[in-house]
Amino acid sequence: MAKQDYYQTLGVMKDASGEAIKKAYRAAAMKFHPDRNAGDKAAEHKFKEISEAYEILKDDQKRAAYDRYGHAAFENGAGPRAGGFGGGAGFGAGGFADIFEEMFGEFVGGRGRGPQATSRGGDLRYNMQITLEEAFAGKTATVRVPSSVKCEDCSGSGGEKGAHPISCPVCHGSGRTRMTQGFFTMERTCTHCAGTGRVIEKPCKSCGGSGRTRRDKNLNVNVPPGVEDGTRIRLAGEGEAGLRGSPPGDLYIFLSIEPHKLFERDSADLHCKVPISMVTATLGGPIEVPGIDGTRVRLQIPAGAQTGQQFRLKGKGMSVLRQNHRGDFYVHLAVETPVHLSRKQQELLREFDKSATKGKPYSPEAEGFFAKVKEFWQELKE
Ligand SMILES: [Zn+2]
Ligand SMILES: [Zn+2]
Asked: What is the DSSP letter of 243?
């Protein structure tokens, strides 16, 4: 099957900057993220494709190799293989994109699964929902994970009282048995040890010889400030225990962030629509808006403010993962038309309307609009 060009996969030009590639990947990853497309095989496939493409194109060295040799640069283990992905315990290195990398560790060669690693414990997934405030401030949560752990009675060996497997008495550890029939000698897999060459004499009673038992465990998860919807946190070695002392799998915490009733998030920035009265909009004046950090932010509205006008409050937005600065907070004004006016108020407004139209015009939008309407009619006539 021919592989699609990595640039095409991400929808960027061949000479796209690293920043543009990152942006394209991010947008696509959000769209095809398995969490948002549960059960959608096509989306899952697409997600893998874009992640694979990004894996190569974000790295200058790998990108250069790809530009030169195409996909062949990364096939059959030839060409530059990346090492050092996957990071240590806790969080992967460097932001949203890098956390995905760990899911594709096999592709990037970060954690090769050789034949000896086949009994490694499975990876576990834990879905955690947090609020936007928690994503802002970070939090430490305790999660209860159903898991299989190393059997305490046999220390994971699978043999009674920790006895280690012995060499298979039938095949003497080779895993193969020979049978002579006439002139022929046939060799086959030893049925006694299933070809492993080792057997457990007396299986541990607690775990039946597997070396692991099922048990819930409590884990403290440190969610750092600035995480985004879809961020995965990898807890190395906290997955299922391996078979008979093999290394355990990893635990992945999948974060999703609840929609907020006031704020909308755009990566590091926050947006909030704030209604103001017609009078404040007209005359100007201070308003107070809530900050994500729980503070009250004062904002001076200039006279003549309009609906849709936005004010940028620098550094009052979301926290940024592993960085000290914060994004910005945008306040979007919505001027409210007064309702349920008393007779007296209606009178006052009529008075106002009469007085104002006599002087200079007071509706900038309308002026522009009616000028355009006039032009439009003019053009129709021509
Ligand atoms: Zn046991
Ligand atoms: Zn055997």
From this structure: G
Q: What is the pLDDT of residues 90-129, one digit of tens each?
A: 333 333 333 333 333 333 333 333 333 357 888 888 889 9
pTM: 0.53
Dist CA 230 CA 257 (whole Å): 8
Which token pair is 153?
A: 């009675």
* Ligand closest to the CA atom of residue 199: 2
Q: How far apart are CA 235 and CA 88, in angstroms?
A: 9
Nearest ligand atom owner, CA of 155:
1
| Residue 284 CB coordination number (10 Å) | 13
What is the amino acid identity at position 186?
Answer: M
Cα dihedral 20/22/24/26 (nearest 10): -150
pLDDT tens sequence across 19-31: 899 889 888 888 8
Characterize 285-316 residue by residue with b for buried, 16 or more Cβ atoms within 10 angstroms of its Cβ, and e for exposed: bebebebbeeeebebebeeebeeebebebeeb
Running DSSP on this structure, what letter comes out for residue 83? -
Ligand number, closest to the Cα atom of 204: 1
C-alpha span between 138 and 233 (Å, rounded):
13
Kindly give the distance from the C-alpha atom of residue 185 to the centroid of ligand 1, in angstroms, as a whole number: 39
- Whether 79 shows a pLDDT value over 50: the answer reads no
Is 33 within 8 Å of 50 (Cβ atoms)? no
Count CA atoms within 13 Å of residue 313 on its CB side.
21
